[in-house]
Design brief:
CATH topology of the largest domain: Serine Threonine Protein Phosphatase 5, Tetratricopeptide repeat
Helix content: 55-70%
CATH architecture of the largest domain: Alpha Horseshoe
Low-confidence stretches: 59-66
Shape: elongated
Mean pLDDT: 86
CATH superfamily of the largest domain: Tetratricopeptide repeat domain
Order of helices and strands: EEEHHHHHHHHHHHHHHHHH
Strand order of the largest sheet: 1-2-3
Largest sheet: 3 strands, antiparallel
Number of domains: 3
Distance between the termini: 43 Å
Structural class: mainly alpha
């Protein structure tokens, strides 16, 4: 993430005052600052004004998306305000134990305005994450809810990029990997600065780990300090596993664990990779710590096999056989 927009909001009755400043994260230089006063019913107009002034200050072109937003008005300013709060909390807490609470403003926004596209798209990720981390009691119910939210967001506004990122996650979970990649490409077309964190996963499951690595590397160059980078690290670890480069896979799974310490699946993966790399003592110690965790979602090889996403790629199927070998060596019960 090269640039960060910081600021504060001061509500006063029906009006808002926003103080904003743009910072270069590499040099900490303050590139631009301004103040905006607007009626709460015109939040999107204020957003457009902020982006437009940043664009003029940095000599950038304002994208077609901003032109679209300039003609769009929030159906309910209170709902839109809650949706933006939800989006900020989603980014801040995605890898923490507070992540479920972060979605409450989205739920509140949808109670006020059931067609708030931003709230629909962001809330979809709550159920996508639960599906992939095995955190909920019913994975298929989580997947259905995620699909309902993302699909409704696209139906209401087919030009909002974040809805396609959510839909891409749903399609990966459904085993529709090429369709997922198409959804991620659509998101990128609508917002060229967007990063689709599920793309490497889709490429991996298609048996194209080289493409997964290339996409992850490009995304990390574009946004080196992104708060969601742990997802890319984990997907790179899987890609190197498919390529049987276990040492490099270990480098990336350790980074994923550091970025998302509450996700026990990364520790499970690391134990298998350690065993495959010939570090069996460390593999068994890691597996013991994993099994000792009350949050460990998979406790046998049979359970692990049941939650795998479908694939017909010979490369991925061969990797899974090696992975099972690693899990056995590390001490995961049958």
């Amino acid at each position: 993430m090269r640039y960060v927009l910081e600021g504060s909001v001061q509500p006063s009755g029906d009006r808002l005052r926003v103080n904003a400043q743009l910072i270069d994260t590499e040099s900490d230089a303050h590139l631009w600052a301004d103040q905006f006063d607007e009626n709460r019913s015109n939040l999107l107009q204020m957003q457009d004004d902020i982006v437009g002034r940043i664009g003029r200050a940095m000599h950038l072109k304002v994208t077609a998306e901003m032109g679209r937003l300039a003609q769009t008005h929030a159906a309910n300013p209170n709902a839109e305000d809650l949706a933006w709060r939800c989006r900020a909390a989603f980014t801040r807490t995605y890898f923490t134990s507070e992540s479920d609470a972060a979605y409450r403003p989205c739920e509140q926004a949808l109670q006020i305005d059931p067609e708030n596209v931003r709230a629909l798209a962001v809330l979809s990720f709550k159920f996508i994450r639960r599906f992939f981390t095995l955190a909920g009691p019913d994975r298929q119910a989580d997947l259905r809810r995620a699909d309902e939210l993302a699909s409704l967001a696209i139906k209401i506004d087919p030009d909002f990029y974040h809805s396609y990122n959510a839909k891409g996650g749903v399609l990966v979970a459904q085993g529709r990997y090429q369709e997922a990649i198409d959804a991620y490409r659509r998101a990128l077309m609508l917002n060229p600065s967007a990063i689709s964190f599920g793309s490497p996963d889709a490429y991996n499951l298609l048996g194209e780990p080289e493409q997964a690595i290339a996409y992850a590397d490009k995304a990390m160059r574009r946004s080196p300090n992104d708060p969601f980078s742990a997802i890319l690290y984990g997907q790179k670890a899987q890609a190197y596993g498919i390529l049987h480069d276990y040492q490099e896979a270990l480098v990336w799974i350790r980074r994923a664990e550091t970025g998302d310490p509450d996700n026990p699946n990364y520790r499970l993966t690391r134990s298998a990779l350690l065993a495959l790399a010939g570090q069996e003592a460390d593999a068994r110690a890691t597996m013991q710590r994993y099994l000792a965790s009350p949050n460990a979602p998979v406790r046998t090889i049979t359970q692990w096999q049941r939650v795998l996403l479908p694939t017909d790629s010979p490369r991925v199927l061969a990797w899974r056989q090696k992975w099972i070998e690693g899990l056995r060596k590390a001490g995961l019960p049958e």
